Amino acid sequence: MPRFKPIIRKPGELIRAEDWNRIQEEISQDLMELDGKITQLKQYIDSLTETTTILNPASPIGKLYSLNENIPGERLNYMATVVGPITGQWALEKGRIGDLCRFGLATHLESLDYWAGAEDGDRKVLEIVFEYIDGTLATVSGLFIHECSKLKPKGTDNPYLEYLLSPNERVWYRYRVRNPNPEKEVLNITFRKIDPACILKIGNVIHYKSKISAL
């Protein structure tokens, strides 16, 4: 509560210098406290984020497989049509590298969560390319993706946030990647396989976290 207490005077009455000075000091202290609280409130508002989930996003490139469909060369599939929110997978078979899928977003985001797994994984096989509305690119390369045939420890190299198990205990891992330029609007996100020695799979669900804009 403000410490300032008004001193009431009738018209024409004088005010002592010490009273005047005290009033000015109390007002100054109250204003400083108010400014500090406004700064704290602004910092809190700036830290607020919201998470958006996109189910089955469209991709102009790549091939989408069902979860119970074997990718060429794959030893076993998920033996289910749905695992959690995931109903399909973009994949690239062993021996090939290149783009798996590309999602159009046209939004600002702080981070992106994606679901992935790799048969013959446990290696750095993924590259994610952020394409911004201004035409520039930023690439996050060498992302480690865990083996999907059985649950693996998180480890310290691109540790997953959570996981989902299919009826036959094959795994989807949820990962998070930070936007290298959160101040820029993201136009597209491209997932790219950079190691031919595995079958890399990206689930058809993404989540992104963005700051809540003040009105």
The class by helix and strand makeup works out as mainly beta
Q: What is the name of the CATH superfamily of the largest domain?
A: Galactose-binding domain-like
The overall average pLDDT, rounded, is 91
Tally the structural domains: 2
Q: Poorly predicted ranges (pLDDT <50, ≥5 residues)?
A: none
Helix content: 10-25%
Q: List the secondary-structure elements in sequence, H or E.
A: HEEEEEEEEEEE
Distance between the termini: 27 Å
Give the second-level CATH assignment, the architecture of the largest domain: Sandwich
Count of strand segments: 11
Radius of gyration: 27 Å
Strand count, sense and barrel status of the largest sheet are: 7 strands, antiparallel
**CATH topology value of the largest domain:** Jelly Rolls
Distinct helical segment count:
1
Characterise the protein shown here.
This protein has 215 residues and is mainly beta. The chain has 2 domains: 1-47, no CATH class; 50-211, Galactose-binding domain-like (Jelly Rolls). The chain is 14% helix and 40% strand. It has one helix at residues 17-47, and strands spanning 49-55, 64-66, 88-92, 98-107, 111-119, 123-132, 137-145, 162-165, 171-178, 186-193, 199-211. Strands 1, 2, 3, 5, 8, 9 and 11 form a 7-stranded antiparallel beta sheet that branches. A 4-stranded antiparallel beta sheet has the order 4-10-6-7, with no helix packed on it. It is elongated. The relative contact order is 0.23.
